[in-house]
Automatic annotation (TrEMBL):
InterPro entries tied to this protein: Heavy-metal-associated_CS, HMA_dom, HMA_dom_sf
Statement: the UniProt record of this protein carries the keyword Metal-binding: yes
Name of the protein described by the UniProt record: Heavy metal-associated domain-containing protein
UniProt cross-references to Pfam families, sorted A to Z: HMA
Lineage of source species: Bacteria, Bacillati, Actinomycetota, Actinomycetes, Micrococcales
Keyword Transcription recorded: no
Annotated ranges, domain HMA: 23-91
Amino acid sequence: MTDRIQLGLTDVSASAAAPASAVNEELLVTGMTCAHCVASVREELSEVDGVEGVSVDLVAGGTSHVTVHSATPLDDDALTAAIEEAGYTRVSA
């Protein structure tokens, strides 16, 4: 990343992956402890209609931050059900 800044280049992949009208749902999830947990949550959330991508900031044994990317708003109950199907718990902020 430092080389790109020094050369004055712009990373266009980030803007191409997320359209200007993109919706990002921020979710808090407890119970995840490892990469396998992250993979399980990503897999279940990716199956929800409209989900285009999932990123996870794992806090092992704590409350992890999960961001779900989509072009339109998503069904909140479906997101919660997907997390529970993976074996974890969604908590309120």
